[in-house]
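Table S2 (continued). Query chain:
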Amino acid sequence: MTTGPENPYGAPQQPPYGQQPPQQPPYGQQPPQQPPYGQQPPQQPTPYGYGYQQPYRPAAPKHPSATTAMVLGIIGLVGVLGCGGVTLVLSPFAWAIGGKAVREIDAAPPGTVGGRDEANAGKIMGIIGTILLILGIIAVIAFIGLVVAFDGDGSTTYGDY
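Corresponding output:
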């Protein structure tokens, strides 16, 4: 009884699906020996000793203003939806605090002060919020100007008695 079609040309057949073909070592090298069951294979030395451990380096402390800038930027932008734009007044503060924190982090020696991403996010959200605040102020001034220019019925109240 045969399990499959015979290969008349003598070429090696593919292994069944899900099985790996046996790997041959390069010419002139010994095949790797498997350790007995339950034992770990020997590790090759690395620049830091055996294994792949790197020297421990604690995370740098965050800049104290980094989180403040990010929170002010988030409140300034998200508060537009709930407070009608009143919270946009926080955006210039987020921009200033975030910009100062980014400059201080960049001036510090590398790896000593962290939190640059948070400070930069607060700075960017502060810029966006400040632009929206300026556009909102211009829109309010334009609206007041239009209301004053077109005074409802177009008549003046002087001398109408």
